[in-house]
Amino acid sequence: MHRYKMKPFKNFPQTVIPGDLICPIFDVDDDNKQEVVIRFLTGTGCKQENFRVNGKNVDIIVATLKGSVSVEEVPADIIEDDDQEDSENTTFVESHETTGGDASSGNSRVIKSFKVSVSNPSKFASKYVDDQFVNNLPQEGDIVLARVTRISLQRITVEILAVENSPLPIDSGVGSNGTGIIAAAGGSGASTFSVSQVSADLGETFRGIIRSQDVRATDRDRVKVMESFKPGDIIRAQVLSLGDGTHYYLTTARNDLGVVFAKSSNGAGEQMYAIDWQTMISPKTGVAEKRKCAKPF
Amino acid sequence: MSVQDRRRILGPAEAKPLQFAAITPVRTVENRDDGNGNKSGKESVFISTDLVTNANGSSYLEYMDGTSDQVLVMSSVFGPRPLRGSFQSKASVSIQFKEVTLEHLNTGEIKEICTFLTNVFNAVINVEKYPKSGIDIFIDLIQHSNSNPTEEANIVNILPTCINSITMALVDAGIEIIDLVSAGSKDNSVVAFIRNGHEIVGIWSDDDNVTDISKLIEECKAKYLVNKQTLVQYLK
Lengths: 297, 236
What we know:
Helix content of chain A: under 10%
Protein name (chain B): KLLA0F18304p
CATH topology of chain B: Ribosomal Protein S5, domain 2
CATH class of the largest domain in chain A: Mainly Beta
Number of strands of chain B: 8
Family (chain B): Belongs to the RNase PH family.
Radius of gyration of chain A: 24 Å
Number of helices of chain A: 2
CATH architecture of chain B: 2-Layer Sandwich
Number of domains of chain A: 2
Strand order of the largest sheet of chain A: 1-7-8-4-3
Strand content of chain B: 25-35%
Low-confidence stretches of chain A: 80-105, 123-134, 170-201
CATH superfamily of the largest domain in chain A: Nucleic acid-binding proteins
Mean pLDDT of chain B: 82
Keywords (chain B): Cytoplasm, Exosome, Nucleus, RNA-binding, rRNA processing
Main location (chain B): cytoplasm
Oligomer: heterodimer
Mean pLDDT of chain A: 73
Number of domains of chain B: 1
Structural class of chain A: mainly beta
GO cellular component, one term (chain B): cytoplasmic exosome (RNase complex)
Radius of gyration of chain B: 23 Å
Distance between the termini of chain B: 67 Å
Largest sheet of chain B: 5 strands, mixed
């Protein structure tokens, strides 16, 4: 990841272990004689912690993982709302910092935000994935791959197999398998992990629900679940919320979301291919079935 | 030689003895905190991580006192795994302690150790990062030979190594922790620290007559700093 050559980044540690201090949450820099306030946001692998230094409380970003530090600029428009509410906080912190003593002179300040994150490239990075693994948990807005386990008129129940752009941890987040210590509720395959093998019977995967209203964006009240998904289909969906205790709430109401892989005749036939957004056909038998397909490209 | 021995089952006539390759000693990375230990630099720690293939992270620690004290501990970390039941916004950490060879401790003591370790690591693991999940930590006491046979002393001697071992396993697993937690022991007490000894995350005391608690903490802190330095040395 790009490392910035600005002054405040020079003191950044390259590699860290948990507990190492990375940077304060605010810093200042002179960019063409204009004062730039740099705000650091916590990304993956770090946490904002309060330290008491010389009688003052200072918020510092500390590493929570072993790995290398990367800094990424966050475009201003994304966090504009956030900036507004924090602007008072900004001046407050500056007045407490020795470097920010002349910052309150009132001329226009530029606030830049950077996301600091720690990643462990050696263990978890894969050449197929450009984002770093830190943990595999689905979060709001993430795209996940899931398998349909049960359908009803109102909802589709799925098990989440993987989060896109984050490689699986060794035990694939579902426990362990084979010899050795087995986690309390047993486990399924880690090194032997494959999408088709993760079992729903053991109930070890993170589960999700797609309500029938969330299947597609248009005509959402007339969705027929039976004509959208079948048990066994592999789907691509987006996480709406963390949901309740047992299920994440997912949606496929986007062109690029929906069924990715499906077999005909309720899984007895061969793999089908999408010919439009609501039809898949089996290339040998020519049988067409209805699905809510994901746009592949 | 022409007389065939019919009483024994012999191998084929042209059999050759098996030839094995010469045994080459396995080289391991060792980390010894020479000179810093209290007992004239004889304390030593061996650390190894990522041994258990199907765990997310694991560690193996050998702690050797200058005397006959020896603690071998292995920990493995599984998860985060999905939890069932009501919604949990934070991870629930569970720690299982087990003596895998000889069993000296009774179930009540093991339960106490588990509760103590769980409390320590709940304070250190960034549990907000793992909603709806459980993190399972298994810690196996492989060997503990001790010159002092009283059971209280046993627990106090193994706890710092257990804490170090879990910390290393968590780092290996890539579970977010706010600092490396380690501990020091003195007499019949163990104090676990983070942030270079500025914060205490756990106190275990089997001592009925502790007179000066701040002195005890200072002495434990000194040992904590040595232990932590060893972990840092291994990780860097």
